[in-house]
Design a protein that fits this description.
199 residues, Pnp Oxidase, Chain A, 6 helices
């Protein structure tokens, strides 16, 4: 598709159209993969790939344990950045914004939709903490599997979603001769301010 970056366009609708096209041309994991950059209390940046698990006018949602490194950093210093790269579309979308937890009902609903093995894995993994051996992780998994045998697995209390409310959305489209199309939408009150950028 051809996306036109114009001052009156809604960047979230542009993103939705591109995301739908990316999903149509690849599996869900590829289209939903996004790099998440956070900053620790020591000022050092950290980046990893997470999966987009929902987006709307309020922002972009991913799930994690709040005691993981990304969870600690995103709640302590909520200014974060996201980056989507869809090679088949020759497109990149960069988002900067502020992260905050989703409400419990939303987190519960998403957790309930996950495969049972993933639910148990969320309990078994003390995310980002040192692990003595993989055997210890597997033993914890088996222990929780027995604990909730024949019952629903509840959401761990520190496992939830974080929503990134966008302050800026930048689009980059690969073009010939390195004359790429690039522009950024920045929050301006209830609307957006658009700036066309050199590639």
């Amino acid at each position: 598709m051809t996306v036109r970056l114009t001052p009156d366009a809604d960047p979230l609708r542009l993103f939705a159209a591109l995301h739908a096209e990316a999903r149509a041309g690849a599996d869900e994991t590829v289209s939903d993969a996004m790099s998440l950059a956070t900053v620790g209390d020591d000022g050092r940046p950290s980046v990893r790939v997470v999966l987009l698990r929902g987006f709307d006018a309020r922002g972009f949602v991913f799930y994690t344990h709040l005691d993981s490194r990304k969870g600690r950093e995103a709640t302590s210093r909520p200014d974060v950045a996201l980056c989507f790269h869809w090679p088949k579309l020759k497109t990149q979308v960069r988002i900067e914004g502020s992260a905050s937890p989703v409400d419990d009902a939303e987190a519960d609903a998403y957790f309930a939709s996950r495969p049972r093995g993933s639910q148990l894995g969320a309990w078994a993994s003390e995310q980002s903490r040192p692990l003595r051996s993989r055997i210890d992780l597997l033993r914890r998994y088996v222990g929780f599997k027995r604990r909730w045998l024949g019952a629903e697995v509840p959401r761990p209390p520190r496992w939830t979603g974080l929503r990134v409310a966008p302050a800026s959305v930048e689009f980059w489209f690969d073009r010939l001769s390195r004359l790429h199309q690039r522009g950024i939408y920045e929050r301006d009150g209830a609307g957006w301010r658009f700036t066309l950028l050199n590639p």
